[in-house]
Design brief:
The complex is a heterodimer of chains A (273) and B (141).
Chain A: H1 11-30, H2 50-57, H3 60-66, H4 68-88, H5 92-113, H6 121-124, H7 134-161, H8 170-178, H9 180-184, H10 190-200, H11 202-217, H12 229-247, H13 255-272
Helix pairs in contact in A: 1-4, 1-13, 3-4, 4-5, 7-11, 8-10, 12-13
Chain B: E1 19-27, E2 30-31, H1 39-57, H2 63-71, H3 75-85, H4 92-102, E3 112-121, E4 128-139
Antiparallel strand pairs in B: 1-2, 1-3, 3-4
Helix pairs in contact in B: 2-3
The chains are: A mainly alpha (273), B alpha+beta (141).
């Protein structure tokens, strides 16, 4: 018999996902870059992107940057709305509010940083929950799934068509540039030691780079079948966490996307069972 | 668009990879350390000095200001858009003060803050500092 609950309407899945977003946002706060942390930012920079333009034309980020109390209220509001969504019940208005606030946060954070960042998962994964109809929610999940499959797959393809993969010193050069602050500060942590080891052994670094290209390109399978989604989730864990360790690029905002890939297949099989 | 950020990151050979310019802030002639911070804070402290230097060297204009000037000829529209989409002509002292505060350092009267450009050589197995020059300086009154 078909279960009534599917991944798209399942309460357990929704609660788990919102709990992971709660962890993600808490980590942003812990890093000191929450709304409140961006108090008095005097310089921001973003390109030709209408989403950024919309928020900045309304002067919302500027207002938040200049009022610490507003930043604090927004940080607490996001946490409380996430707690409500996890522990109390689903509410479409609250979900919309969360989506807008988290997107505003991403816009404010990356405008401060001066360029966009790949960690968009923590607000994009909320899009399906903006719809109450299970059909719309299902299509929204499908859209997000295909978007991220394309995102990771195209990253692998770019490394081939831009000749990065044909450059054996690519990884060692990148590692040197990524770790300049560590070297200048004589930071002798295990991460610097690992970095030096990989710079010295360029063959090992090149193999790692080729493995990354293979891993990202493997996402092409997601266009043809969903059976491998949990494998893609495991590959994402391997990819992002090794990036975190080796390149010092954290995946904080992508935890929810990793979770989605890991669990979607499991839920699908339950539904069909 | 917002959802398509940097998926060609690390995909092509780095041009002129033997030398790199990077930017740091010094408080009372001591470089502010950033590598011990959690990822996002470290990233902002690492990236913003180079972005601000470009803006500062281009007479307080960023790429968006240049784009807006090329697209909007009507002065009132241009003023409206520039006013909201680009930072106000920030006093360098404000930016330097914000940076130091963001890094968690306390500021006192008479402190000197410098934005410094470093030239780094990547020719050996680890980066070597070969030169440095001051971009801008502020002394706290």
């Amino acid at each position: 018999m078909m279960m009534e609950t599917t991944i798209h309407t399942g309460n357990y899945f929704r609660k788990s996902l919102f709990f992971i977003i709660f962890i993600e946002f808490s980590l942003f706060i812990f890093s000191g870059v929450s709304f409140q942390g961006l108090y008095q930012v005097p310089y921001f920079n973003f390109g030709i992107d209408t989403v950024y333009w919309l928020f900045f034309l309304l002067q919302i980020p500027q207002f938040i940057f200049s009022h610490q109390i507003v930043g604090l209220i927004l940080d607490l509001s996001i946490l409380l709305l996430l707690i409500y969504s996890v522990f109390i019940k689903e509410n479409i208005i609250i979900t919309w509010l969360l989506f807008i606030l988290l997107m505003l946060y991403y816009v404010s954070l990356t405008a401060t940083l001066g360029h966009r960042n790949y960690q968009t998962g923590f607000f994009i994964i909320i899009i399906p929950f903006l719809f109450s109809s299970p059909t719309n929610r299902k299509y929204a999940f499908e859209g997000i799934r295909y978007f991220y499959i394309f995102f990771y797959f195209s990253s692998g393809i770019f490394k081939i068509i831009n000749y990065g993969i044909f450059e054996p010193s690519m990884m060692t050069t990148t590692l040197k540039q990524q770790f300049i602050p560590y070297f200048l500060e004589s930071n002798l942590s295990w991460r610097t030691t690992l970095n030096l080891l990989l710079i010295k052994h360029w063959v090992a670094s090149y193999i790692l780079f080729c493995t990354t290209v293979a891993l990202e390109s493997f996402f092409v399978i997601g266009f043809f079948t969903k059976k491998w989604d949990h494998v893609l989730g495991i590959l994402l864990i391997f990819f992002h966490f090794s990036n975190w360790i080796i390149m010092d690029i954290s995946p904080i905002g992508q935890f929810s996307i990793i979770f989605y890939f890991l669990i979607s297949n499991k839920f699908s099989s339950k539904v069909n069972g | 668009m917002i959802v398509f950020p940097y998926n060609d990151m690390f995909s092509s050979k780095i041009q002129n990879s033997k030398f790199k310019k990077c930017y740091f802030v010094k408080l009372n002639n001591e470089r502010i350390k950033i590598s011990h911070f959690p990822y996002w804070k470290k990233d902002i402290l690492e990236q913003t000095p180079s972005k601000y230097t470009s803006y500062f060297n281009a007479n307080h204009q960023n790429q968006l200001s240049i784009f807006l000037k090329s697209k909007f000829k009507d002065s009132s529209t241009l003023f409206f858009l520039e006013n909201r989409l680009t930072p106000s002509k920030t006093n360098q002292a404000d930016w330097l003060r914000w940076y130091v505060g963001f890094s968690g350092k306390k500021l006192n009267k008479g402190d000197s803050i410098l934005l410094v450009e470093y030239s780094i050589s990547n020719e050996t197995n680890f980066p070597i500092l070969i030169d440095s020059s001051t971009i801008c300086k502020s002394i706290l009154k």
